[in-house]
């Protein structure tokens, strides 16, 4: 799948060993979120949800300078954009349900809308030179999408990120919990692919339920979270895969997951 000019696509989609790579390919503009890019991200996200050949999505940017530098400010100025519409950009878990795991492979700056894209992924792997910032306060724009930030990082860290607009380097982002792994730039793709492949190799029903369980505490109190977790996992326990796992262990073979 490509989006934009077929000779120079601005978003590409490819599946490698059950891992879908959704890449913003606009490096000369620091992978900024033009209309074509946003449309391509929507198309790619929807394709991944429906793609039975892909178990994990990796979102990244082309080049080594920027994952995504945020909105296309020139385009915003030309269109006099005020409040972005609800479907301005796919926000995983907010305006599009993505049951399968997602990983941001951050290959440079992730500012503003780029920070949003990384924030909404389930996991983040960052190159050593990556930088993260909610930079809207520096250009008079807004970041209502940052509402989950104080769930992802300590509240005072979230406050500093939002009020200063100053970037965090990859090491600091990992220290505060925004990033899972920091790797050399040359190893970003292979390290992310390896992480995604390990997830893709697990029982799909358990992976999907695990993702839903992890987000429960962001939406409800502990007692309700336990109750809802029991509901989420009940069909997993009753599945054929739940019998296949122990049987494969007993028989000293690799499990064959059916997803049912």
TrEMBL record:
Catalytic activity: a (3S)-3-hydroxyacyl-CoA = a (2E)-enoyl-CoA + H2O; a 4-saturated-(3S)-3-hydroxyacyl-CoA = a (3E)-enoyl-CoA + H2O
Keyword Lyase (UniProt): yes
Keyword Manganese: no
Keywords: Lyase
GO molecular function, one term: enoyl-CoA hydratase activity
Top-level taxon in the UniProt lineage: Bacteria
Entry's Gene Ontology BP terms: fatty acid beta-oxidation
InterPro entries in UniProt: ClpP/crotonase-like_dom_sf (IPR029045), Enoyl-CoA_hydra/iso (IPR001753), Enoyl-CoA_hydra_C (IPR014748)
Region (Disordered): 240-260
Family: Belongs to the enoyl-CoA hydratase/isomerase family.
PANTHER family: ENOYL-COA HYDRATASE, MITOCHONDRIAL (PTHR11941:SF54), ENOYL-COA HYDRATASE-RELATED (PTHR11941)
Protein name: Enoyl-CoA hydratase/carnithine racemase
């Amino acid at each position: 799948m490509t989006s934009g000019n077929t000779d120079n696509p601005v978003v590409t989609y490819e599946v490698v060993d059950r891992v879908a790579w959704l890449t913003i390919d606009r490096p000369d503009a620091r992978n900024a979120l033009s209309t074509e890019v946003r449309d391509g991200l929507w198309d790619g996200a929807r394709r991944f949800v429906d793609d039975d050949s892909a178990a994990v999505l990796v979102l990244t940017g082309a080049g080594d300078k920027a994952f995504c530098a945020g909105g296309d400010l020139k385009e915003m100025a030309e269109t006099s954009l005020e409040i972005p519409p609800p479907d301005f950009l796919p926000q995983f878990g907010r305006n599009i349900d993505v049951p399968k795991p997602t990983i941001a492979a951050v290959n440079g700056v992730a500012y503003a809308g780029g920070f949003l894209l990384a924030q909404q992924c389930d996991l983040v792997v960052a190159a050593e030179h990556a930088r993260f910032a909610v930079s809207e306060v520096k250009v008079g724009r807004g970041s209502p999408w940052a509402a989950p930030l104080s769930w992802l990082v300590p509240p005072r860290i979230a406050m500093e990120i939002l009020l200063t607009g100053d970037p965090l380097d990859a090491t600091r982002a990992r220290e505060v919990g925004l990033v899972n792994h920091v790797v050399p730039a040359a190893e970003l793709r292979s390290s992310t692919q390896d992480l995604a492949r390990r997830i893709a190799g697990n029982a799909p029903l358990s992976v999907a339920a695990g993702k839903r369980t992890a987000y429960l505490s962001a939406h409800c109190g502990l007692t309700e979270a336990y109750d809802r977790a029991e509901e989420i996992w009940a069909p997993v326990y009753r599945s054929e895969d739940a019998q296949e796992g122990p049987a494969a262990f007993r028989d000293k073979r690799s499990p064959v997951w059916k997803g049912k």
